[in-house]
Amino acid sequence: APADVLRVLLADELSAEGVDHLLAAGVEVVPAAGLSGAALAAALGTVDALIVRSGTAVTAEVLAAGAPRLRVVGRAGVGVDNVCLPAATAAGVLVVNAPVANADAAAEHTVALLTGLARHVAAADASVKAGQWDRSAYVGVSLAGKTLGVVGYGRTGRAVAARGRALGMTVLAAGHRLGVAAAAADGVTAVTVDEAVAAADFLSLHVPLTPSTRHLIDDRRLRLAKPGARLINASRGGVVDEAAVLAALDTGRLVGAALDVFAAEPPTADGGTCPSAALARHPRVVATPHLGAATAEARAAAGVEVAAAVTAALAGTPVAAS
Ligand code: MLT
User: Fold this and answer.
1) Cα–Cα distance between 174 and 199 in angstroms, integer?
2) Which residue among 165, 233, 286, 299 has its CA within the 20 to 30 Å range from the CA of 67?
3) Ligand 1 pocket list (CB less than 6 A)
């Protein structure tokens, strides 16, 4: 290829719509799904941009390996926690994301987890498939009239809050950019994280994983929860202290949890010895394998959104990660 053609390495599979967007922009697409570590660092040597989903960790080592042309890393999703931001900054590499495309899908999966948790959908399904018909074993709790605590009020948290209101729930929301008036306009009450935890019948987390949100829901906060509260996490596993969540489940402080994300993904990644694996196996945990953004529509849209952000950044008209 001529040296002046911009080259974008796809370290994870990108939607066909996203690839089409790159090709239409005149960019050469270099498929490299499954590369990691040294192989990824080597492949980066001849490209101008890298696009990842969640399968690839863009570590400090990868970025430090010396990629003379690399100017942009694009993340086909909201969270950029799999990209080492300080190392990217040090290498002069701009990091862009797809902040819009996945919000509704993530909110919809949160509702699936919320209702599935309240009504034991997964366990009841497994029992029927095993030939049982036990209607008294799966009596659940109603959502109408209950309090939903939403921690994190970006696009996803806000979309979850609206859906919680539609289910007849009282919604308390903790978000650092959420003021009293904006909350009132959305029909929710602005609270602190502690207040949300203390008042929630159902607590749902929608913050990015950053150094300041790691273990945001820790043992201290879980002790504030109402006995019998339920936790839903479709954000990032590291936002909760998983050992503390396990302890809260075992003492009954939490009667259940619905978890789409784990500190270790898959939870058995390190041989199943970490709390992620114990949580995933726990009888009162509903677990899904990081499916929040996994709809056909969201995947297509996230591919296009990140492709547009990357081509804009390469053209010198960047859209900052948000
Ligand atoms: C996101 O950050 O938008 C999601 O985690 C995307 C994904 O599932 O890879």
Assistant:
1) 12
2) 299
3) 53-54, 77-79, 102, 290, 292-293
